[in-house]
Amino acid sequence: MAKGHRSQIKRARNANKDTRPSAKLSYARMSAQKAGFVLDAIRGKDVTTALGIVTYNPRYASSVVKKLLESAIANAENNNGLSRENLYVAECFANKAPTMKRIHPRAQGRAYRILKRNSHITIVLDEK
User: Fold this and answer.
1) Structural domain containing residue 89
2) 105: how many CB neighbours lie within 10 A of its CB?
3) Residue 103: inside a domain, yes or no?
4) What is the rounded distance in angstroms from the CA atom of residue 85 to the CA atom of residue 62?
5) Residue 14 maps to a domain
6) Residue 3 resides in a domain
């Protein structure tokens, strides 16, 4: 266990908090694997190139990632005072979220399970 008063523990935990601009979407209705294909395409790119990639990508996840990327850019400009020209995608990842379980009726009274997978998508930007 950590030693010290509760306020000291909180102060120490908040001191090493990541200050880079970011945006997170929780419970996106797609699997983490499908979102990961789009995120792999924009990782490490500058934001104008990344926006161009997700705009013309035919996958469904690209429309969700585009909205999230625009939100991260707006957070960087408004909250951190960074200029859009110097930003690039430092990190982007999709984690698994709780799966919705549904039942599909089959022959002879059987029921098959349908798994509707969700994901948490995170985009972190940084300055060059």
Assistant:
1) 19-127
2) 8
3) yes
4) 22
5) no
6) no
CA-CA-CA-CA dihedral for 62, 84, 128, 34, to nearest 10:
-10
More confident residue, 62 or 2: 62
Structural domain count of the chain? 1
Q: Note whether residue 8 is domain-resident.
A: no
Structure tokens at 125: 């930007």
CA-nearest of 59, 90, 97, 58 to 72 is 90
Distance CA 22, CA 74 (A): 10
Query: Taking a C-beta distance cutoff of 8 angstroms, is the pair 94, 40 a contact?
Result: no
pLDDT in tens, 76-107: 999 999 999 999 999 999 999 999 999 999 99
Q: What is the CATH number of the domain that holds 38?
A: 3.90.470.10
Phi/psi of residue 15, nearest 5 degrees: -70, -35
SS (H, E, C) 55-94: HCCCCHHHHHHHHHHHHHHHHHHHCCCCCHHHEEEEEEEE
pTM for this one?
A: 0.84
